Amino acid sequence: MKFHILTLFPEMIEQGLANSILGKASQREYISVEAVNIRDFTENKHKKVDDYPYGGGAGMLMQAQPVYDAYKHVLEKTQADSPRVIYLTPQGKPFTQEMAQEYAREKELIFLCGHYEGIDERVLEEIVTDYVSIGDYVLTGGELPAMVMIDAISRLVPGVLGCEESAEIETFHNHLLEYPQYTRPEEWNGKKVPQVLLGGHHANIEKWRLEQSIARTKLHRPDLYEKYALEERACEYLKKKDKVHHADMLDVIQRGTAKIFAVRPDGVLLQDKESGTYMLSVSNRDAGERLLSLVPESWGTDTFVSHQEFMNESICARFGTGSNVSVCFQAAYTRKTPIALEKAEIRPLRAEYAQTVQDHYHVIHDLSYILERMEKEELFGIFEDDKLAGFAGYHNEGSMGMLEIFEGYRRKGYARMLEAFLINHRLEEGRTPYCQIFTDNEASVKLQKKLGLRFSKELIFWLS
Ligand code: ADE
Known about the structure:
Bound molecules: adenine
Radius of gyration: 26 Å
Shape: globular
Number of helices: 16
Mean pLDDT: 94
Low-confidence stretches: none
Distance between the termini: 36 Å
Strand content: 15-25%
Structural class: alpha+beta
């Protein structure tokens, strides 16, 4: 992960990030931090980078020219197509752990640090993609906020923390604060370590920790607790009804990208923030209508997954979807053990294969979608003698799919290998692999059954 920081104080960034875990991560090249001095790019012979604001007012503003030229200089060196440019400002979107996770998936990021009273609006309009604040207080410049963000993002980059687990189970995981921790001695200042932690009974320890997390969150962060409780109630409803029929909705909640509109005793409506897809499951029409009324008029997506046929008409009427209804089985791999996989040459597909994929993929012909899947490293190819023989991947809402084996390479078990690979990859992430199969695709139904996926009794309907 490469960070480029446009700043008037490069030493501040260099010194601030040179030590401890991030210093090591730089040395080991898991991350790279490059501070670019905006002053080096000014055309002013006195090296000035600021001037008075038009219309009057206190303080000075940074001028557009040096900022723009420093940005252009960085662009020339980046490998990413159009890296996101984050401007640190108290007027920005409040920074969260979720945003850190999203940024950690990028390959390069550019940070723009302002000083004085800010930066000429015209250059911000020209280059900035994200306005971010680290809290409701005003600092003297953007360097500390940039460092805060770089710290939070870097520790999510694989390899930086060493033990990957420690980034997983901690504060904000599932919206809960972390449980209390203790180390030796067993008794300090008359205070004992809680008995349960000394017993070595794993399940009891987990249970105690969860209870502590919940109690702390309720007490200190009732706002977070609300989110946790809503997701718990949604999962409870969806699991009680049919875990496999709701594998898609449960996965979205588990991976932390669900915007839950409401949970009722008779239904759940959510949106996957990653793909924009809405998902609805209800036990009666009345519940469905009530939940649908919560979706804003400008609903901002073109796909809706209905889990009950009786709701399709209402969804289509309200959102104008339905010109394309795909009727699918939902199937999930509910075991915890990976599938034994013979040696196969499977690797993520890069953009150079986008055209080939588009030419062969019989369902989606949208090149930008294929490129986006490749960029996220969620589309994989299987090779024979270094020649692409087929591909499969994960859709943007999380399901496995996009499976094609090219003519001449069929009946060699490649489809099974690709899918087993996808299943094992998901299991490693601690997620439940699932897929959706057109009801008329007999070959796929056969393959899923052979791989041990369980089918839901009820169907699902993609309305787009
Ligand atoms: N620049 C000054 N104050 C800031 C803040 N709170 N967040 C981000 N950038 C800033």
